[in-house]
Specification:
There is one protein chain. The chain has 206 residues and is α+β, with helices and mostly antiparallel strands. It folds into two domains: 3-108; 110-196, Alpha-Beta Plaits (2-Layer Sandwich), CATH 3.30.70. 31% of the residues lie in helices and 31% in strands. The protein has five helices and ten strands, in the order ββββαββααβαββαβ. It has helices at residues 52-67, 86-95, 97-107, 127-138, 168-181, and strands at 3-11, 17-18, 27-33, 36-43, 75-76, 82-83, 110-119, 144-147, 155-164, 185-193. Strands 1, 2, 3, 4, 5 and 6 form a six-stranded antiparallel sheet that branches. Strands 8-9-7-10 form a four-stranded antiparallel sheet. A hairpin with a 7-residue loop joins strand 8 and strand 9 (155-164). Helix 4 (127-138) runs antiparallel to helix 5 (168-181). The longest helix has 16 residues, at 52-67. The radius of gyration is 19 Å and the shape is elongated. The two termini are 16 Å apart.
């Protein structure tokens, strides 16, 4: 297995551990170029199939990176980024270095949390009022937030939040307080995740 499958980009070259990774790989390590590190595993293809199992492994590895060494900032890559050689990967790191540096600065010490509010079947809710209430409670605690698609008629709110690690408990408490005040909504609170929603760096796989 000589190809390099990329999970995300970190500062430096300190990440290395054994785990169940994509396409049967068992070890994750870092390939570095000028203080940027691509966290990779070795696979036997440059076009891995996105099975449910491997998509979950990709996300699980990113969580392990985030928790590595008491907390590591990682710029996450989408599933499927694989390169034929270290040289090709380092060329990509070289070309995208300014964008990676900006992204790393934006998400340093932060992760993504998700909130979905689903109305009960017979509930008549005021979406605008709910959005305002949630914003008043959560926006002061979050560093950033983005709106996601309302893919169901019952989905009242779907947002992702970029939250400092140090503010996690305060954010949890704010969500819990909101949930306690509403019996007409189901609260689906998820994360932490690698901050996909707050990073827009795209690299081309070879």
């Amino acid at each position: 297995m000589t190809n390099r499958y990329v999970y995300g980009i970190v500062d430096g070259d300190t990440v290395e551990f054994e785990t169940e990774a994509v396409a049967g790989a068992e070890r994750v390590y870092t390939i570095s170029h000028r203080r940027l590190g691509a966290v990779v595993s070795d696979i036997d293809t440059t076009d891995p199939e996105e099975t449910d199992e491997d998509a979950q492994r990709h996300d699980d590895v990113l969580r392990e990176i985030m928790n590595y060494d008491s907390g590591t900032t990682v710029v996450p890559m989408q599933f499927g980024m694989a390169f034929e050689s270290d040289r090709e990967l380092k060329n990509v790191l070289r070309g995208a270095r300014p964008a990676f540096r900006r992204a790393m600065t934006d998400i340093e010490g932060r992760f993504e949390l998700g909130l979905k509010l689903v109305r009960e079947d017979d509930a008549d809710v005021d979406r605008e009022a709910i959005e305002g209430d949630v914003a008043d409670r959560l926006e002061p605690v979050a560093a950033q937030s983005v709106e996601n698609d309302l893919f169901s008629d019952r989905l009242v709110l779907n947002r992702s939040y970029l939250v400092d690690r140090d503010e996690r408990e305060a954010f949890d408490d704010a969500v819990a307080d909101f949930e306690d005040d509403r019996d007409d909504l189901m609260v689906r609170y998820t994360g932490p995740f690698a901050p996909y929603s707050f990073v827009d760096v795209k690299i081309g796989a070879q």
